[in-house]
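Request: Not sure, any thoughts?
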Amino acid sequence: MSRGKDGPEDVDATFAEIVADLRADGFGLPEDDTADAPESQQTGTATESRKTPERPAEPPAADPAPPEPGWRSGGTSWDTTMFSDDPAGDDEHYIPPEPPPLPRPKMGAFLILLLFLAGLFLLILPGAIGVGPTVATPLGILALATAIALLLLRVRQGPPPGADPSNGAQV
């Protein structure tokens, strides 16, 4: 078998060769075919002399009665669950409660927003306020970096105020 750069040159021929070798060894044969053949035929060229298994003329009929619901099933079949009417009906809608009001922003939040917008303004439109790009670019980057640093410093690191640390996980 000659191999190319990434594998065999003729993949189909190589696969057919591997399958023929496995069938000659008796792998993949139905048990009826290997049980009737003598030992000499099973180890040699048994693939040519083998019979195909007979298939029944018609498939066996499906069991008309559904299986009894066991402890693993919910008592209803999949079709009944998916295609029947909703047992809850339309009168039982969930109405979520009103969300709590947003907290009032503090002075630090306004400062961070002001620095962030000033930094973006200095980077995007430095000529609008009469400052050259050589001065506005470092000032804009400094304002953005300061806003991001102050924003990250405001993130709470510990449990919320009033939380009991012996209660376990807080969701």
In short: The helical segments are 11-24, 31-36, 39-43, 46-49, 78-83, 107-124, 133-153.
